[in-house]
């Protein structure tokens, strides 16, 4: 287990666990592999910071992930973003796209929020909300997916529904209804 060099603040009552933490990474090119878990508070990837080898990001209940990086594709290795209840991920104004196109799957709750800045298009591999696939299409804040906010666009692929081939012969009897 290693530690991350960060500047930030932590606040807690004496004898209690930390209840809020704020870390901002400005110019760190992290070679970490595995998962990045934001368990509480706000974790900001800013400046030229990059976590390119992280495969999964989990933003726990009530936690925040803020992407303020000036480095395009600062999280290109991320394949899964899980968001807990009331979790929020913000792609701040002026932030280039952090994730690889069509590679990221997001699993969020109905109370999570994904904020994408105006002018950014985030192309997802999949989006699920409370375990159910979200409607395919181009989504912006105020649209069909209320968990998506901001003026940017989140492109969700259409889910292919399996079909079965059926045949029906009309005029075969007294009841020609398809329903029977």
Helix and strand topology:
Blueprint: E1 7-11, E2 20-25, E3 34-38, E4 42-47, E5 54-59, E6 64-69, E7 80-83, E8 88-91, E9 104-108, E10 113-116, E11 121-129, E12 132-133, E13 137-139, E14 148-149, E15 153-156
Parallel strand pairs: 2-4, 3-5, 4-6, 5-7, 6-8, 7-9, 8-10, 9-11, 10-14, 11-15
Antiparallel strand pairs: 1-2, 11-12, 13-15
| Topology pattern, helix = H, strand = E | EEEEEEEEEEEEEEE
Rg over CA atoms: 21 Å
pLDDT average, as an integer? 78
Q: Strand percentage, roughly?
A: 35-45%
Shape descriptor: elongated
Please tally the helical runs, counting DSSP H or I stretches of 4 or more residues: 0
Give unreliable regions as ranges.
1-21
From the N-terminal CA to the C-terminal CA, the straight-line distance is 64 Å
Class computed from helices, strands and strand pairing: mainly beta
Q: Helical content, roughly?
A: under 10%
Largest sheet: 8 strands, mixed
Number of strands: 15
Key phrases:
180 residues; mainly beta; 8-stranded mixed β-sheet; elongated; disordered N terminus
Produce a short descriptive summary.
A hairpin with a 2-residue loop joins strand 11 (121-129) and strand 12. 0% of the residues lie in helices and 39% in strands. The chain has strands at 7-11, 20-25, 34-38, 42-47, 54-59, 64-69, 80-83, 88-91, 104-108, 113-116, 121-129, 132-133, 137-139, 148-149, 153-156.
């Amino acid at each position: 287990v290693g530690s991350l060099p960060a500047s930030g603040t932590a606040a807690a009552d004496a004898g209690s666990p930390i209840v809020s933490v704020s870390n901002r990474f400005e110019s760190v090119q992290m070679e970490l592999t595995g998962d990045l878990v934001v368990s509480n508070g706000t974790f900001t990837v800013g400046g030229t910071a990059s976590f390119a080898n992280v495969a999964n990001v989990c933003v726990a209940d009530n936690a925040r992930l803020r992407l303020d990086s000036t480095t395009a594709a600062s999280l290109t290795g991320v394949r899964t973003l899980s968001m807990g209840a009331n979790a929020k991920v913000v792609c701040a104004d002026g932030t280039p796209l952090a994730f690889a196109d069509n590679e990221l799957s997001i699993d969020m709750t109905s109370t999570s929020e994904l904020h994408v800045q105006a002018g950014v298009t985030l192309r997802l591999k999949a989006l699920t909300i409370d375990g159910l696939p979200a409607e395919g299409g181009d989504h912006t804040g105020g649209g069909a997916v209320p968990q998506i906010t901001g003026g940017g666009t989140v492109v969700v692929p259409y889910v292919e529904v399996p079909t079965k081939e059926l045949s029906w012969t009309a005029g075969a009897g007294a009841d020609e209804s398809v329903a029977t």
